[in-house]
Amino acid sequence: MSHPIPSPASTSEPRPLAAWRALALDLPRHHPELVAGRDGVFAEALAGLPAIGDADLRGLSDAELRLAGLDVLMVEAVVRRHGLPRSESTLDASASVVAERLGLQPIISYPLYIRENPVDLAEMRRFTAYEAEFRFIRMHAAIEDLFDQTIASLEAIIDSDAPRMALREHFAGLSAGLRSANRIMSGFRSPVRMPHADFFDGFRPYYDALRDRDSGELILDGPSGLQSYTYRIVAMQLGYRDPVLDGWTERIGRYHPPDLRDRLDRVLRARNAGRNLDARVCEPILGGQARLPHLHPDYGRHLPSILRIAEGRGYLRPEVRGLIEGFGLRLGEWPARMSSNDEVPEIEVPAGIGSAEMADLSLLAELEAALVAMHLEHVATAAVQIGAEHGTGGTSGVEFLLVATFRRAFPALWQSGIGARIAAEA
Question: Can you give the pTM of this predicted structure?
Fold first, then answer.
């Protein structure tokens, strides 16, 4: 199934960037021929591209510079995917120049492909003419926009002089945004919206990771939702803090421009200083439980309660559990390849918790359930679309994604048994 591709707009711009832009916009036309092994027309167009130098990038706004990077690195992805000659190093030199100016690695990334990609059909950069790719970009962009709104709401709560009151004020918007993001995620499983072949054999190979040809060793990660800085910020604002999350947050930094790396670092430092929902709302009610880990194999036992809330309040599609188990994956089972930590203690419920405190803890439990549901929607979608295939972001794929179900933003809420009580009453 293909989407009509408008002809690239003619331009009198003398700069080499115009030539790269024209080829990037024309990639969907070349895709069928390249897949069929007929690369002559594309190779000719590639050979005619002028090298991009520093002078060609001067005077560009940040948005223009990032769009230029998108153009060049998408062409690089096509050349790499089809094993074509690299045009006497013109491609490598140009990719290096734009990547250095952007402060990125010289490989197409999720931030460029999704966030910097124009949503207008005539200007959207795509590898194929498939409607599925058009939807893929638009759907991910919509999720990113919802995360932007979530970040703004969480900031308002965390920075408020009365965070519990602010949580109540912003909860409806938070809930609606996360529910919408999860439903959009589930749309990727539709064989009509996202035909498996169009995704798996069509455009996904263009943003695979860069690996050493001989050893298969990973050199650079390919585009992946793991590179979403908005999700990282949401996770840290809620209170997630564990070595796995933080390690991946640091790892994805090099696939973001310096300003976004700085933003991630500021949020991380603020989280460590107590600027997060766990410290601002949960701990004042349940007492400081800073020693509780935020990722632990024992937390698998919380899942039945979390899933009850997630399904009952519309964050998780009812078919998700069956889909995941149908692929041989077991919810609540800690991956065998990962080490297991010492047991974590149960937490006694402090005296004096009244109905108002329980109401606020119920809101936190629902936010936790919404985030776990998002991960499970992602797992189910990945299982349907890629099965046991490796992840483009340098992970093992679906199994890796399940690790997130053992992560808790509010561990004291669940270790105290209050989360299970809230779920039972849901």
Answer: 0.91
222 SS3 class: coil
Reduced to 3 states (helix: H, G, I; strand: E, B; else coil), residue 4 is: coil
Q: In terms of Cα–Cα distance, which of 102, 188, 181, 109 is closest to 394?
A: 109
What are the helix (H) ranges across 36-162? 40-47, 54-57, 62-81, 90-102, 110, 131-158
pLDDT at res. 87: 65
If we measure between CA atoms, which residue out of 168, 183, 177 comes closest to residue 363?
168
Please give the pLDDT value at position 5: 56
List, in sequence order, every residue forming a beta bridge with 407; answer none if it has no partner: 295
Q: How far apart are the C-alpha atoms of 333 and 47, rounded to whole Å?
A: 52
- Tell me the domain boundaries of the chain: 16-102, 143-222+281-425
- CA 96, 100, 103 angle in degrees (round to 5)? 135
- Cβ–Cβ contacts within 10 Å for residue 213, how many? 9
Contact 104, 257 (CB under 8 A): yes
Token pair recorded at residue 69: 């990077």
CB 93 within 8 A of CB 46: no
Tens digit of pLDDT for each residue in 336-379? 777 766 778 778 788 778 999 999 999 999 999 999 999 999 88
Residue 421 corresponds to which amino acid?
R
| Contact status, residue 292 vs residue 414, Cβ threshold 8 Å | no
CA neighbor of 279 nearest in space, from 157, 170, 178, 369: 157
Q: Which two tokens stand for residue 336?
A: 């065998």
**CA 191/CA 281 separation, integer angstroms:** 42
Q: Which residues contact 26 (CB under 8 A, 6 or more apart)?
A: 8, 45
pLDDT digits (tens, 9 = 90+) for 59-113: 999 999 999 999 999 999 999 999 998 766 899 999 999 999 999 999 999 999 9
For residue 322, what is the enclosing H or E element? helix 320-326
Secondary structure (DSSP) of 150-180: HHHHHHHHHTSSSHHHHHHHHHHHHHHHHHH
Helix (H, G, I), strand (E, B) or coil at 210: strand
Please count the residues of the chain: 426
Closest CA to 222 of 232, 213, 210: 210
Say if residue 207's pLDDT is above 90: no
Residue the block writes with tokens 């005619």? 48
Does 57 have pLDDT greater than 50?
yes
